[in-house]
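--- STAGE predict ---
source: upstream dedup step, 1 unique chain passed
mode: sequence only
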Amino acid sequence: MELEQAKVRALQLSKELNYHNDRYYNQDDPEISDYEYDMLLRELENIEAEFPQLISSDSPTQRVGGSKGEKFSPVTHAVPMESLHDSFSADEIRDFDRKVREVIDRPVYVVEPKFDGLSVSCEYRNGVFVRGSTRGDGTTGEDVTDNLMTIKSLPKRLKNAPAFLEVRGEVYMSVETFKKIVAEQENNGEKPFKNPRNAAAGSLRQKDAKITAKRNLDIFVFNIQQVEGVEITSHVQSLNYLTELGFPTAFYRSYDDVEDVLREIEYIDAHRGDLPCDIDGAVVKVNSLADRAVLGSTAKFPRWAEAYKYPPEEKETELLNIEINVGRTGALTPVGIFKPVLLAGTTVSRATLHNEDFIREKGINVGDTVLIRKAGEIIPEVLSLVRHGAHIEPYRFPENCPSCGSKVIREEGEAAMRCTNTDCPAQLLRHLIHFVSRDAMDIDGLGPALLEQLLNAGLIKTFTDLYQLKAADIATLDRMGEKSADNLIGAIDKSKDAQINRLVYALGIRHIGEKAAKLLCEHFLSIEKLFEASEEEIAAIDGFGAIMAQSVYDYFHLEGTKHLICELKELGVKMTPLQPKAKEGRFIGKTFVLTGTLPTMSRKEASALIEKNGGKTSSSVSKKTDYVLAGEDAGSKLTKAQSLGVTVISEEELLNMIEE
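--- STAGE serialize ---
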């Protein structure tokens, strides 16, 4: 590769990696797998190794991927929270060993599993947990003390503790918890988490610690960052000391021969399915802290540690059958049933086949051999057809719902087949889960498990039955007593005061999410006007289209909808109207995007002020954006606004515009 070619490719890779860094670290919503990202980073490292003049201080190879974020107060790390250099082969681990031995005589290595979670720092004074923060960019992170307080496995008080102690750990979500949450999200028609790492990161970075508490996070502590009054000379000593203090630590083994290290890496890989959490590799660390000081660090990585990343494991298996699941919106999802195969440490026998188009495009039939892997090391996915079976059975999508027998249809422009029966039993539980969810009617304490109990006991069949429940009936259910029953009745009564937009969202109208429900209710104000609205009137709402309008119109003209609404009213559901959206004001027709920390108000307060003055807010910057309201530490949205030539304003300028 010539220098000019290398320069162009390095710039392209840097832009791509920075984009994916933001998706992974700051938005907790990656678009590519860890392995695909690692390969892009390795390509850039190789280019920079060949052409050192192309290395810049802001290259993705020279800095930790995250940023300190915008949600929380910044915390400056007294001891930098460095990243690790990755290896992908035994020879690369041997090369790491060779470089260490050029500096250190007879090094001893500690080998540990590499957890795939969110790295945090936890500080203790006189044994009391006083502050916790994310890694961020390695130098500055976010203060997430309240959220870390909700993690039961993190000690809040230490016995026989030093005057000051700072430890580093990895917050993770167990495989069991992850599967439960994803099942709930799918039942509720929500976008499910992609993998446990992003689930843990998104949960820990919630502004409301109550949400974090519900996510049942855990932590492993693996390093001492700072300690006063205790002399620590080796990593093994530090791990033993952390265990004595009551911290959850992972297993480790130490070796003085690199071939033993490689065998331990293989052992961890073979037993990763036995762990409660997801791991994506193993970490090799020099044991002696004095040796570490001699080896030092690069701008991004310590020279005394190396991470070995396990490649995505792919295996062939036979497709034995295809089952159909019916979701909350009536969508029929095909699920492949496979000959069980061991993959990434666990036995896999099921994976989604998404929809009819996916099956047809892959050319998959029952009896075929397919290639599967675990996406994010947890969710199995079908990659491709390997070969057709000897006696294949071409798969035909059912014409009738497997749950209720009603006709299924596929609407124009959609990939999913849907059951046409709104009273389909398979949809009922999912409808109820959505109805009581936090952004809908927000009935606290009424989760999927309890709803299923109520259904099985015959206590509820519809939304209206929830408002006719008696505490005495609830108290007879498993794990429910009088106090719990009374609390639940109180939460149900409280939900009767919900504003009309919450009810409209809770009804589960197709294509109508939380924001669309609010726009609808700001325009029509009352439930009665929604029944009277024409398709044309609904479609005229800014942000609505023909499909959304038809869906709303059809729903409010169903025979059972009027009866449902009347019954809810009779049971005391108030359907409190929203204030009408401003029809005049400084910002009529203007779209704002908010980013960064504002000096005197939260972004939620600023959004309300903009909407009060006739404007609307969006979460992403485009050519249609009129203004970007930027505060301190504005991130990628500000950069995109500048590249598109969108006007950027401060909080002071926003207030001046309103005064004018």
